[in-house]
Write a structure and sequence with these properties.
The chain contains three helices and ten strands, in the order αβαββββαβββββ. Strands 1, 2, 3, 4, 5, 7, 9 and 10 form an eight-stranded mixed β-sheet that branches. A two-stranded parallel sheet has the order 6-8.
């Protein structure tokens, strides 16, 4: 008996239906990944304004701590990272009407939320940009540097322990003016300070 002739299945021509199904599947995957990356970037960039009430309370607390008027233009938190963003910071000079002691366009604080709940406030990083500091000394020994620590003795247990792990202050300018006798000054522009 003669054997049946083998069945020959013709090869699918290049660009057939299964080829285009594969291309569509790859393109769909690339599109979904692109949308996910774009969405994450948008959420990371979004911030929530913490409102005038909280901003006013923060200004009052800082002013009381340094015994000098402290102002900020805005206070917000980034949704994805939880970073606090303080904009247009200004600390007044020694007397009303004096030039500001300190100004900064932006201050970003990386504070993990869980550290606040444990009463051990950890500030992972502080980033200042576009800052300007003016230090002045006067003939009677006065200077315009604020007091960042309190002289009052602490009573009772400490409510919070604060740890700052790193500070970076970029694009800054420091000016020193000595008003004792013949006035002289030094200005140092383009300062980038890193403290760890």
């Amino acid at each position: 008996p003669s054997e049946p002739a083998p069945t020959v299945v013709p090869a699918e021509p290049s660009g057939g239906p299964s080829f285009w199904r594969g291309v569509r599947r790859v393109l769909r995957g690339v599109f979904v990944a692109g949308v996910a990356v774009l969405g994450a970037a948008i959420v990371a960039g979004l911030s929530v304004d913490l409102g005038p009430s909280l901003k006013k309370r923060a200004e009052a607390a800082a002013s009381k701590q340094i015994e000098r008027p402290f102002r900020m233009g805005g206070l917000s938190v980034k949704l994805l990272t939880g970073d606090f963003v303080v904009e247009d910071v200004e600390i007044d000079g020694l007397h009303e009407g004096d030039r500001p002691f300190f100004k900064a366009k932006s201050v970003v604080l990386d504070v993990p939320w869980w550290s606040i709940l444990q009463r051990d406030l950890i500030v992972r990083s502080v980033q200042l940009t576009d800052w300007d500091m003016l230090v002045e000394t006067h003939p009677d020994g006065r200077h315009n540097f604020p007091k960042f620590t309190s002289d009052k003795p602490r009573t009772g247990p400490r409510v919070f322990t604060t740890t700052v792990q790193s500070v970076r202050a970029g694009r800054g300018r420091f000016t020193y003016e000595d008003h004792e006798g013949s006035t002289w000054s030094v200005t140092a522009p383009n300062i980038d300070i890193v403290i760890t």
